[in-house]
Design brief:
The complex is a heterotetramer.
Chain A lengths: L3 H13 L4 H11 L7 H12 L4 H10 L4 H10 L11 E6 L2 H5 L2 H12 L5 E2 L5 E6 L11 E3 L2 E3 L4 H14 L2
Parallel strand pairs in A: 1-3
Antiparallel strand pairs in A: 1-4, 2-3, 4-5
Helix pairs in contact in A: 2-3, 4-5
Chain B lengths: L3 E5 L2 E5 L5 H7 L23 E4 L6 E2 L10 E3 L3 H17 L14 H8 L16 E2 L5 E4 L8 H10 L4 E4 L6 E4 L16 H5 L5 E3 L12 H12 L2
Parallel strand pairs in B: 1-5
Antiparallel strand pairs in B: 1-2, 3-4, 3-5, 6-7, 7-10, 8-9
Chain C lengths: L3 E7 L5 H7 L4 H8 E5 L12 E7 L2 E3 H13 E7 L1 H5 L12 H11 L17 E6 L9 E3 L6 H13 L11
Parallel strand pairs in C: 1-2, 1-3, 3-5, 5-7
Antiparallel strand pairs in C: 4-6
Classes of the chains: A alpha+beta, B alpha+beta, C alpha/beta, D alpha/beta.
């Protein structure tokens, strides 16, 4: 599931950058008085800071909250929000909720899979692009909905979205 | 407090207040299938094999987690319960690779026994033919995930009796898997005390002592209850 | 009373179930008095005959030949018994399923794990073509009775055959492995 | 904070309000369609015209007709414009004072507006959800004051009981009874939890309420806490709803600053603190006991009930769990009296219900209707039928736990019992319309796939049953099914319904069973000739 080499790379670059993410994370844990109950809140923060949850990061959280490592790992892998592997530079999330489904979201997803060569839920080998799915964004009023690099796109049109992704990936090549 | 009187499969039985239905059923000499339950461990009500019908209740209830009450009328062996139990055992056999012929626990396995008990002579569902790894990095024990039924008895034995919580479950749904520490090879676990209680608790051949071959792993889950008793009594 | 027509077939399995059948020793003589073995790997027959009363199928369905023979047996038999764990569950024969479709299996066996220069045998009509997935018999034809065991012990085989021959209700215990 | 201070804030708000106002929808749907850019553009245009001081531009919550967004309303005329673009800004400003404007207008006399009865949504699209003063100006927090100073907890519970309010999360358990159980259960501490883990695909009612009127929910929770004797509350909200989380956070801070949450609320002995817990993507956490596990920082796996959370919930303490819409009904019930509330709806289902109307429907959006309204009125009148005139085939209610109701049963009244009688459930309020082109076997398979992915894995019938059911449906759809498969499918559905540990597994077969019941021919067609001979 994880690629250890990449994880340590990320960690190393973080240390080199002299970042204070560890401090922020520590402050979050302190705010919750290092209580095990706060595990999910702490993991949210850790992922927000680092983009994903590396084994090192999880171990550290386990240690600070005095939780068994397996429990932390069990929680981190139970919830779909937590990612144990780094995501691509660009991400596109397709909503697969019922309203979006009825309005053709699965066709949209297939098209993007074909375009990017990335299967839903995965990241391209070069780390440029992640194609993700959501169970429901709750944006059913504008179905089908997609999120491209954080921007919600309503009434997502197949040709329009593929063009945007092509441009996104093509531009930087 | 006075004993509770209840009716189980037409027989009047008495039970101490606060007793669980499962122990009362067993004390009455009635066999009822269980899998996730193990004497000495807390109950989770997950396998659904000990579900019983209780008159006046809309839903079936797990005997392992239902407290007896006065006047309760319980049926443990109705046609639909038999049919559900068989289906559940079929689902388990289809889920992973339970090949008794090549299993260390054959002859001493609770799953194998369950199949016989519920009369599961074949599996109607498609076998999922998963390919899970076998971890033999631990010097004394191994785990073959292909034979795991996710009863979590190892997790509870490790947490509740040994107190180290080396085991837990990762993922969810059909992708659930028991793990040691950070989903790392068992032999590299820093929390495991190599006490072997997980192996004792395991109902199938999933967790086994290294060096045994087909049919050689003894079944010794009842030792878990003895250990708990010993701890209480300070033998 | 006319003698019953019994057949046994051997598909994807090790023939251990047939060995167990032979373990019935002198009861086989009694059996011969009441039934005729019209098709079997231990009888000299080429084609599956019509009007068979009871057919025991040992082994899982692993290739196209198994599939065809199982279907033929079903067409010509009143009663089909899945005979032993391979027929009932796929068992050891199905251990290849986790490796993936047949091409992956052949690749691993004949190329990756063989001496250099290995080739995958391909002679349709001569070498049976593997199915992508080994399946129990009841997944390809309707089965009337199941006799688990690897192999089923001789007494259990006898119990089943006796009930079938005498037309009694079949009540053979379940015992995998 | 005292009552007169609250009233002073309200008066100040009203007196400072400009006569001319432009209300821009700033809920998630319209934001995604660019409503914030429209707001910026309007500001630019007004600045250029030197009119910025005379006109209020307000970001407001959901105006309902999400499918036609972005929506903009102008006051005092009350005209509502749809599909607005930033280029429309000049014309909208002109329209404020009756000038020419070609931006498409919504017909306010359309049944979409006239057939609704907003109670929960009464402030949505009227107030700026990010300003507590706006909420106070429409009467907010006065009910809480009234409750704390003039009612005993028992009186509050009595009022809720008499109103007939039932849980809006789906199962319809009587709210008053739940409150009473928590109130009388012994416990060192008690908790109030707002379940905002709205997970049904095709549902966004709670999201809209939280984004449009967060204080209404906070006030409802505070009243509940007073009634049951809790001092700590949690809102468990989906991580997928960042805007709702942000607005809730703001709302909590604002309320705390004014002394409407926290210690000694309204100078009384009543303390109540609310914390947000953000879900991490697990549908099963909508189930009470899984939600509790998740708040406690564990894997969101349910446990058998009893004991019910009302007796033993968070950290083993009595815990009241209601969903967003249930809490949002509380102030109106206290304000107008339980008899008023009980006069709306049917004999057993009181009040209104919010629905997210989506799918193949002309007027996609958020609606609130009295209980007892027929499906036909919702789909044909309020929803305006399908966008391209293809006949409606069915409507799905209750999400993955619900069922598909065929068009032939559209006269069914919308209430808990009637929907259950036709094989569906009220659910939390998702209503997905399907037209004749929708393949019902695919729909069933879609929902089972959802449940398979969301199964927590604890109990066997759900963990493995969903996978086998999904495989069977896939085989069927691919034309590889056999007549036996339908029997197996039905047997599996029964097994899951009867033996699964929690509501997710127990209700997972509903979409399959209801489509098998009403659209069996679509299944049989896939099995091929052998069955067609029979039929």
């Amino acid at each position: 599931m994880t690629t250890p080499a990449t994880n340590t790379d990320v960690d190393r670059s973080a240390r080199v950058a002299g970042d204070n993410r560890r401090k922020i994370l520590e402050a979050t844990m302190k705010r919750f008085q290092y209580q095990g109950d706060a595990l999910i809140e702490v993991l949210h923060k850790a992922q927000e800071l680092y983009g994903f949850l590396s084994p090192e990061l999880l171990s550290e959280v386990a240690q600070r909250l005095r939780l068994p490592p397996s429990r932390v790992y069990g929680v981190a892998t139970f919830y779909h929000f937590f990612s144990l592997a780094p995501q691509g530079e660009h991400t596109c999330t397709i909503c697969l909720g019922t309203a979006c489904y009825v309005r053709g979201a699965s066709l949209l997803l297939h098209e993007l899979e074909a375009l990017s060569g990335v299967k839903a839920g995965h990241t391209s080998a070069d780390g440029r692009f992640s194609l993700l799915t959501a169970r429901c964004l709750g944006a059913c009023g504008i179905a089908p909905a997609a999120v491209l690099d954080g921007e919600v796109i309503g009434h997502a049109d197949r040709s329009d979205l593929t063009a945007r992704i092509r441009a996104l990936l093509g531009h930087e090549e | 407090m006075a004993a509770k009187t209840l009716t189980i499969d037409g027989h009047l039985v008495s039970a101490r207040p606060g007793a669980m239905l499962l122990e009362t059923i067993r004390e009455a000499g009635i066999t009822i299938p269980t899998l996730c339950h193990l004497d000495g461990l807390s109950d989770v009500g997950a396998c659904r094999l000990c579900l019983v019908e209780i008159e006046g209740q809309r839903r079936l209830q797990p005997a392992c987690m239902t407290t007896v009450s006065e006047g309760m009328v319980v049926h443990t062996n109705t046609p639909r319960l038999r049919s559900y139990r068989r289906q559940i055992v079929e689902l388990l056999f289809a889920e992973r690779n339970h090949v008794c012929a090549v299993c260390v626990a054959s002859g001493n396995c609770e799953l194998q026994r369950l199949a016989a008990l519920v009369g599961m002579d074949h599996v109607r569902y498609e076998y999922m033919s998963v390919a899970y790894p076998v971890d033999i990095s631990h010097p004394r024990f191994g785990i073959d995930h292909n034979r795991c039924v996710l009863c979590t008895r190892c997790v509870r034995a490790c947490d509740e009796i040994e107190g180290v919580h080396t085991w837990d479950v990762s993922g969810r749904g059909i992708d659930s898997r028991v793990i040691t520490d950070m989903n790392q090879p068992w032999g590299t676990s820093t929390t495991c005390t190599s006490c072997g209680k997980c192996q004792l608790a395991c109902p199938t051949g999933a967790i086994f002592p290294r060096g045994v071959t087909v049919g050689e792993r003894p079944h010794a889950s009842e030792r878990i209850a003895l250990i708990v008793e010993a701890r209480k009594q300070r033998w | 009373m006319s003698r019953l027509r019994i057949a046994t077939i051997w598909l994807g399995g090790c023939s251990g179930c047939h060995m167990s059948l032979l373990d019935l020793d002198e009861w086989l003589i009694e059996l011969a008095a009441r039934a005729e073995l019209v098709y079997s790997p231990i009888a000299d027959t080429k084609h599956f005959p019509p009007d068979v009363d009871i057919t025991l199928i040992e082994g899982a369905i692993a290739n196209d030949e198994h599939l065809e023979l199982a279907r033929t047996a079903r067409r010509h038999s009143k009663i089909i018994v899945s005979f032993g764990d391979c027929a009932v569950t796929g068992n050891v024969t199905a251990l290849r399923n986790p490796l993936g479709p047949s091409q992956n299996v052949l690749q691993q066996v004949y190329i990756e794990h063989s001496d250099p220069g290995g080739v995958i045998p391909y002679e349709p009509g001569i070498v049976p073509v593997l199915l992508d997935k080994v399946v129990p018999v009841h997944q390809v034809i309707p089965v009337d009775y199941y006799l688990s065991g690897c192999p089923p012990s001789a007494p259990r085989i006898r119990a089943l055959l006796e009930s079938l021959i005498e037309g009694r209700e079949v009540a053979v215990d379940v015992r995998f492995g | 904070m005292e009552l007169h201070e609250l009233e002073a804030i309200a008066e100040r708000e009203q007196s400072q309000r400009a006569r001319l106002r432009i209300l821009c929808c700033a809920a998630a749907g319209c934001q995604a369609s660019g409503s914030l850019e429209i707001k910026r553009r309007l500001e630019t245009v007004l600045t250029a015209a030197g009119k910025l001081a005379e006109v209020d531009i307000m970001p407001v919550g959901c105006m309902g007709l999400c499918g036609h967004g972005p929506l903009v309303r102008i006051e005092p005329s009350g005209e509502l414009f749809e599909r607005v673009t930033p280029a429309d800004a000049e014309e909208l400003v002109a329209a404020l004072e009756g000038g020419p404007c070609n931006v498409p207008r919504c017909d306010r006399n359309h049944p979409f507006f006239t057939r609704q009865l907003p109670i929960v949504l009464r402030h949505c699209g009227q107030i700026n959800p990010e300003r507590i003063e706006d909420y106070i100006a429409v009467g907010g927090y006065r009910t809480l004051y009234h409750v704390i100073h003039e009612m005993t907890p028992a009186e509050v519970i009595n009022a809720i009981t008499r109103s007939g309010l039932r849980g809006r999360g789906g199962a319809g358990y009587p709210t008053g009874l739940k409150w009473a159980t928590v109130a009388k259960s012994p416990g060192e501490r008690k908790f109030v939890v707002c379940n905002a883990d709205e997970g049904d695909p095709g549902a966004f009612m709670d999201r809209s309420v939280l984004e449009s009127d967060p204080h209404l929910v906070l006030e409802g929770m505070a009243i509940a806490a007073y009634a049951v004797g809790a001092e700590q509350g949690f809102i468990y909200v989906r991580g997928e709803y960042p805007l709702a989380i942000e607005r809730l956070q703001k709302a909590i801070v604002q309320a705390r600053r004014l002394g409407l949450l926290g210690a000694q609320i309204f100078e009384s002995g009543f303390n109540f603190r609310i914390d947000i817990r953000v879900g991490a993507g697990a549908f099963v956490c909508g189930e009470e006991t899984a939600l509790i596990a998740s708040i406690e920082g564990r894997r969101g796996q349910p446990r058998p009930r009893p004991p019910y959370p009302a007796e033993s919930g968070l950290w083993g303490m009595p815990t009241l769990i209601n969903n967003v819409e249930t809490f949002a009904n509380v102030t109106a019930i206290i304000e107008n009296g339980p008899e008023w509330y009980a006069s709306i709806g049917t004999a057993k289902s009181k009040g209104t219900k919010v629905f997210a109307l989506t799918g193949k429907i002309r007027n996609t959006g958020l609606i609130e209707v009295p209980m007892g309204i027929s499906l036909r009125e919702i789909v044909e009148e309020i929803g305006g039928g399908t966008p391209d005139g293809i006949p409606v085939k069915a409507v799905q209610t209750g999400g993955p736990s619900g069922g598909c109701i065929p068009a032939s049963l559209f006269d069914t009244p919308v209430d808990y019992e009637s929907l259950a009688a036709v094989g569906s459930i009220m659910g939390s309020g998702g209503m997905v319309v399907m037209d004749e082109h929708t393949n019902m076997v695919d729909v069933a398979r879609f929902y089972i796939e959802f449940c398979k992915d969301e199964s927590c894995g604890k109990c066997i019938p759900c963990r493995v049953g969903t996978v086998q059911l999904f495989n069977l449906l896939t085989r069927l759809r691919n034309g590889q099914g056999s007549g036996n498969d339908l029997i197996e499918i039905e047997a599996l559905c029964e097994l899951m319904r009867e033996t699964s540990l929690c509501g997710l597994g127990q209700s997972a077969p509903n979409p399959v069973m209801s489509t098998l019941h009403y659209f069996r021919h679509e299944y049989e067609r896939l099995i091929g000739a052998e069955v067609e001979h029979g039929s």
